[in-house]
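Page 42, continued from yesterday. The earlier attempt failed because a stray header line got pasted into the input along with the sequence. Redoing it now with the clean sequence only.
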Amino acid sequence: MTAAISHLVTSGTFSLDGGIWDVDNNVWIIGDEHEAIVIDAAHDAAAIRDALGGRTLKAIVSTHAHNDHIDAAPVLADATNAPILLHPADLPLWEMTHPDRRPDGELADGQALTVGGIELKVLHTPGHAPGAVCLYAPELGTVFTGDTLFQGGPGATGRSFSDFPTIIGSIREKLLTLPGDTKVYTGHGDSTRIGDEAPHLQEWLDRGH
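This time it went through. Structure tokens are written below.
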């Protein structure tokens, strides 16, 4: 078996700036029959572990540290001995959810992670959060965007630690430069393709959020 992508949806809450919202999160698992990487351990560590099917978990990669993307990460890490990886710029957000448990390693722009014979390239894409990252898998023609890019627009920037011009710059410089047929697997909701989102960039700029 060559490396493949599997997906589950978990449900819980997102909280920031005094608000609490019910959310469904996409959890992505990339790997072969022996090993895997989890992108965003959201809400349900047991369900994610079941989806691994006994494979060795090489890493838990957090696209950013909003609580709904990291709330299950420590439990999953303790159950699998896998390291939690996070960009250091998101440590202040991480500590809001897990003040007594730090991530095990750092993510950096341009870093390469390998699993099942394929490479995931880390793209630092701040804006939704200071340490937001995307994971680009050229061999799979796929980018995992967390909450940086969704079908129809960028991630939200109306709360603490976020900035609209920054996220637009990240999308323009790091994501819209990818091949147009690159599949975009998001942190919430439906998937899309880079080429389908490129025409909307000027519209986002015109909105001036």
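Notes: The first strand starts at residue 4 and ends at 16.
Reminder to self: strip header lines before submitting.
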